[in-house]
Amino acid sequence: MLCQILGQVKKHPSLIPVFVFIGAGGSGSVLYVLCLALFIQDVSWDRKSNPEPWNELGPNDQCKFYSVNVDYSKLKKEGPDF
Amino acid sequence: MACPFQMGLQDATSPIMEELLHFHDHTLMIVFLISSLVLYIISTMLTTKLTHTSTMDAQEVETVWTILPAIILILIALPSLRILYMMDEINNPSLTVKTMGHQWYWSYEYTDYEDLNFDSYMIPTQELKPGELRLLEVDNRVVLPVEMTIRMLISSEDVLHSWAVPSLGLKTDAIPGRLNQTTLMAMRPGLYYGQCSEICGSNHSFMPIVLELVPLSYFEEWSASML
């Protein structure tokens, strides 16, 4: 399929920006969804051995994809133990 | 509050709403530019006597009209994400107020220090005093201190509702069985109106929200008088 794409690009060079943006957008969204699926503890994937992974979150776990000005390693636990 | 024939957003009362207003202006300007360009091109296409029946390919213009929209979208997405992250910043609220949606009124609980609860029903049109706003006034307003970060915890006792105050850029769903949180910071005192924003039955349009933002000393007097 890559040969086909390269062939088309040689004949119509204006297709390069299309492939760049579609490729970046597509792979970015797939990677983001994979990142969420693997690292976010909101979803229970294994009902037998880890039914509620959100109960294991500590104050130092970063749930957001990109943290602007919060240093998660410095936060302390404020509430009572569950 | 909204005025008749109002075309834009209400004046901003919180810093986030100000950011949203500017973002709306920025995005609307882009939309107007694109629409006027398209309208101009359509009008020239329809009024020209020139014809060209043998267009086979147009590499340069294709490159331009791929890259330019991508750049425009990035120019819209970056400020949008910036505001999204700004809304989620941790800001250490000094007061927590709980609001529960019911069919068809809101109830408020200020339980940080004492146990203060009250219901907030809309004032029916027949009982309005002169100068009051139809379908927007309530009997007990939500009095809050100005220029202080306030945490609002929102839920519902029966069906879905939504607690919205457009002037502060707030709209949070009230879902039975779930606790949603939003933070409120008003920059100036005054009365700020909102209406229930999730269909909840026959009187969905008749359960407004009125925030009365006052200086802290007035807020303390009011909460002492309400106990």
Automatic annotation (TrEMBL), chain A:
Record-level GO cellular component terms: mitochondrial inner membrane
TM region positions:
15-40
The protein's superkingdom reads Eukaryota
> What does the UniProt keyword field contain?
Electron transport, Membrane, Mitochondrion, Mitochondrion inner membrane, Respiratory chain, Transmembrane, Transmembrane helix, Transport
Instruction: Give the subcellular location.
Output: Mitochondrion inner membrane
What is the recorded membrane topology of this protein?
Answer: Single-pass membrane protein
Principal subcellular localization: mitochondrion
**Pfam hit, one:** B12D
The similarity annotation says: Belongs to the complex IV NDUFA4 subunit family.
Q: What is this protein called?
A: Cytochrome c oxidase subunit NDUFA4
Q: Report the gene name.
A: LOC103676131
From TrEMBL, chain B:
Q: Where is the Cytochrome oxidase subunit II transmembrane region profile domain?
A: 1-91
Q: Which UniProt keywords apply?
A: Copper, Electron transport, Magnesium, Membrane, Metal-binding, Mitochondrion, Mitochondrion inner membrane, Respiratory chain, Translocase, Transmembrane, Transmembrane helix, Transport
Query: By its UniProt entry, which InterPro entries does this protein fall under?
Result: CcO_II (IPR045187), CcO_II-like_C (IPR002429), CcO_II_C (IPR034210), Copper_CuA (IPR001505), Cupredoxin (IPR008972), Cyt_c_oxidase_su2 (IPR014222), Cyt_c_oxidase_su2_TM_dom (IPR011759), Cyt_c_oxidase_su2_TM_sf (IPR036257)
GO BP terms: namely: ATP synthesis coupled electron transport
Name the lineage: Eukaryota, Metazoa, Chordata, Craniata, Vertebrata
**NCBIfam families documented for this protein:** CoxB
Compartments, as annotated in UniProt: Mitochondrion inner membrane
Q: What does this protein do?
A: Component of the cytochrome c oxidase, the last enzyme in the mitochondrial electron transport chain which drives oxidative phosphorylation. The respiratory chain contains 3 multisubunit complexes succinate dehydrogenase (complex II, CII), ubiquinol-cytochrome c oxidoreductase (cytochrome b-c1 complex, complex III, CIII) and cytochrome c oxidase (complex IV, CIV), that cooperate to transfer electrons derived from NADH and succinate to molecular oxygen, creating an electrochemical gradient over the inner membrane that drives transmembrane transport and the ATP synthase.
Protein name in the entry: Cytochrome c oxidase subunit 2
Look up and give the membrane topology term.
Multi-pass membrane protein
- Recite the UniProt cofactor note for this protein: Binds a copper A center.
Q: Which domain of life is it from?
A: Eukaryota
Q: Which Pfam families match?
A: COX2, COX2_TM
Q: Identify the species of origin.
A: Ursus maritimus
Q: Which gene encodes it?
A: COX2
Q: Which parts of the sequence belong to the Cytochrome oxidase subunit II copper A binding domain?
A: 92-225
What family is it from? Belongs to the cytochrome c oxidase subunit 2 family.
UniProt cofactor(s): Cu cation
Q: Where are the transmembrane segments?
A: 27-46, 66-85
Q: Which SUPFAM superfamilies match?
A: Cupredoxins, Cytochrome c oxidase subunit II-like, transmembrane region
Repeat as a keyword of this entry, yes or no, is no
For this protein, what reaction is catalysed?
A: 4 Fe(II)-[cytochrome c] + O2 + 8 H(+)(in) = 4 Fe(III)-[cytochrome c] + 2 H2O + 4 H(+)(out)
